[in-house]
Amino acid sequence: MTAELFLQTVVNATYAASYMALIAVGFVLIFGVMGVINFAHGELYMAGAYTVVALYADMGFPFFLAVVVGLIFVGCLGLVMEVGLFRPLRDNPLGGLIASIGFLLILQTVAMMGFGVRMENVPPSTQDKIVFLDGAVLTYQRLYVILAAVGLLSALWIFLRKSKFGWSLRACAQDREAAVLQGISINQTARIAMFIGAGLAGVAGALTAPLVSPTPFMGHSVIVTAFIIIIVGGIGSLEGAVLVAILYGFVHTFVTTMYDGTLANIVGLLLMLAVLIVKPTGLFGAKERA
Amino acid sequence: MTKLSKGGMDRRQFLSTTAAAALLASVSMPKIAFGAEKTVKIGFLAPLTGEVAAWGKPGLDGCHIWADWINADGGVKVGDEMLKVEFVPYDDEYDPSKARAGAVKLIKEEDVKFIMMLGGDPWPGASQVAEREEMLVSTLLPSDLTPDTEMLLAPCEVHPIYNVTGVEWLAENKPDLKTAVICAQDDALGKPSVATYLAAFEAAGIEVLDEPIFFDPATTDFAPIMSKMLALKPDIICLDTCYADYVHPLTEQAFQQGYKGQMISCTADFYQKMVEKTSKEFMEGFIFQFPDFDDPKLNEPHVNFKKPNDFYQEYLKRYGAGEWSAVSWEYASIMDLWADAATKAGTTEPTDVLAAMKEGGVGKHAFGEADWWGEKLFGINNALVGLWPVVAIQDGKAKIQDFKSIPDWWDQHSDLLIKHMKALGQMYYQRT
């Protein structure tokens, strides 16, 4: 591998890790606080992308305004899911999962009816790029995703560690009954978790819309990777999700570049298998819950 | 007196009004009441949703134009009757099990006389039903053909064999290009196409620098794949028969990572969007195989597709400028062949139409006279093969550069194609 290819692969891997971290952290936050496996998480990512399609590509609003609206809109979709689906089914372990599958299909159908089945063309907000000395290239469009991941996940970490609401989220994730006994509102923490978790997926979709050509089915592929990341990281662990997203992003990108993508997928699954055998709770499963 | 509704009409008024309405309807709609039009149903079993919908839905849209034009002229002449044509679509979602369900529904419930499919992965799902019911089926992918598929035809698109024409034209017109790299999704469309490009490059004296890259169809980030290809410093990047969802991001990645060389691809559906996302300069000379039908070269006398320029304008008027794809005209061109054969046979029965269609071993392919061919490659002469256009983007617009003969290439290089097909397990006797 030449120095140029190595550096380009590092750049590619950093982008891949960033957007997967945004998706996986939202996924794990929802599961950690609410105990729900949200199968519609990939479709929340898709909804963020379509917000940019509608506002930026079709209506001509500024790109970053569309991204912010995407975050808020998808966060609000999360609130709708929490109030309409997950709260009534809170005592039914499988109910939330099934309801999220139903919501997934609804979101896909709405996207198909609204935009059609074709892939959407979202022009990049800029063609500018950084060219490193060795010739490796990082486009601004990808840089935005990396910066958003660093900024938003840092803000989330501070929120969880330093704010009263963050403490209540962590308390619910650790022991919901004990949290209730301390006077913490389960409904309120669930709403916050859903808004943040869905919003992170939405912002990931919104920022990557110019890079992936959105389709109503774009959520399928990311949800599988998100599962691998949260299982390896430890179900319910935010730190685990971030670290494994970085690890997975680098391993997958390097194996894809050096060998091929199919082998990279196999390596990802073997990684998950190995962790499950050695440490069934995941790398950060038991001790480092949100 | 029985009141039907409070303050409304009584029973006598109701009966007399109903009788009058029925009489009026029978008088005002004489065709329906006394002489209903006869209709033949054609099944459209292709992906209308999902990742491969771009090779199904635009074809159905084209068929609607074809049917409207034919029906406006009275329909298809079959024996002494004029039959209106009705398309019955079924979305197979590029899934074999759904294709099977669709084939059953179309044949058993809808009584269709002909089924058009995209082919590829869904064909094995529908094949048993089609064979058992002796249903005539068309595919766009002759790689579905085997000696056992007697009722399956590839009458329009000889995918991927026509890809040789693009490479042949490139070698003739840009002889300084000496090296290439290839990538494709790892599926029933990608592999035979890779074998074809390998044969075409070898025949043209162009060196393929590394093993072709087969990527997972679930891939969403194409930067690593393009980085790997660019590291080899090729003169030509070949995108094989990648789906539009892959051609676009791969092309964007080539642009973003600074590639300035030649690109070739089987398709460039919605290429205007690629021009928007990259630049006219970057896309200049991009070679592919599917023309826009407003191209003046389609008015040359050898072209059999009826009114191609009008068809294109109508398509754009109905569905929008950005909706034209590689398959927009293909299923309609198959219907031209089917309608001619049904007229010749005097019946719509599938076996008779098949015999009429293949009579004499030649047929009127959309781009010119062609032969029913394929025994050496597919084990059966059920692919209609002749001329195929080579298209290049010039100043942001697709333009036909030339029509090249596939049989002529085959006569010189058949051994190469068979060698590479065998190596990738794509000969008919190797496929499962």
From TrEMBL, chain A:
<keyword id="KW-0472">Membrane</keyword>
<dbReference type="GO" id="GO:0006865">
    <property type="term" value="P:amino acid transport"/>
</dbReference>
<dbReference type="InterPro" id="IPR001851">
    <property type="entry name" value="ABC_transp_permease"/>
</dbReference>
<keyword id="KW-1003">Cell membrane</keyword>
<dbReference type="GO" id="GO:0022857">
    <property type="term" value="F:transmembrane transporter activity"/>
</dbReference>
<keyword id="KW-0813">Transport</keyword>
<keyword id="KW-0812">Transmembrane</keyword>
<dbReference type="GO" id="GO:0005886">
    <property type="term" value="C:plasma membrane"/>
</dbReference>
<feature type="transmembrane region" description="Helical">
    <location>
        <begin position="97"/>
        <end position="119"/>
    </location>
</feature>
<comment type="similarity">
    <text>Belongs to the binding-protein-dependent transport system permease family. LivHM subfamily.</text>
</comment>
<feature type="transmembrane region" description="Helical">
    <location>
        <begin position="192"/>
        <end position="212"/>
    </location>
</feature>
<feature type="transmembrane region" description="Helical">
    <location>
        <begin position="263"/>
        <end position="286"/>
    </location>
</feature>
<protein>
    <submittedName>
        <fullName>High-affinity branched-chain amino acid transport system permease protein LivH</fullName>
    </submittedName>
</protein>
<feature type="transmembrane region" description="Helical">
    <location>
        <begin position="224"/>
        <end position="251"/>
    </location>
</feature>
<feature type="transmembrane region" description="Helical">
    <location>
        <begin position="61"/>
        <end position="85"/>
    </location>
</feature>
<dbReference type="Pfam" id="PF02653">
    <property type="entry name" value="BPD_transp_2"/>
</dbReference>
<dbReference type="InterPro" id="IPR052157">
    <property type="entry name" value="BCAA_transport_permease"/>
</dbReference>
<keyword id="KW-0029">Amino-acid transport</keyword>
<keyword id="KW-1133">Transmembrane helix</keyword>
<feature type="transmembrane region" description="Helical">
    <location>
        <begin position="21"/>
        <end position="41"/>
    </location>
</feature>
<feature type="transmembrane region" description="Helical">
    <location>
        <begin position="139"/>
        <end position="160"/>
    </location>
</feature>
Automatic annotation (TrEMBL), chain B:
<keyword id="KW-0029">Amino-acid transport</keyword>
<dbReference type="Pfam" id="PF13458">
    <property type="entry name" value="Peripla_BP_6"/>
</dbReference>
<dbReference type="InterPro" id="IPR028082">
    <property type="entry name" value="Peripla_BP_I"/>
</dbReference>
<dbReference type="InterPro" id="IPR006311">
    <property type="entry name" value="TAT_signal"/>
</dbReference>
<comment type="similarity">
    <text>Belongs to the leucine-binding protein family.</text>
</comment>
<protein>
    <submittedName>
        <fullName>Leucine-specific-binding protein</fullName>
    </submittedName>
</protein>
<dbReference type="InterPro" id="IPR028081">
    <property type="entry name" value="Leu-bd"/>
</dbReference>
<keyword id="KW-0813">Transport</keyword>
<dbReference type="GO" id="GO:0006865">
    <property type="term" value="P:amino acid transport"/>
</dbReference>
<dbReference type="InterPro" id="IPR051010">
    <property type="entry name" value="BCAA_transport"/>
</dbReference>
<feature type="domain" description="Leucine-binding protein">
    <location>
        <begin position="39"/>
        <end position="375"/>
    </location>
</feature>
<keyword id="KW-0732">Signal</keyword>
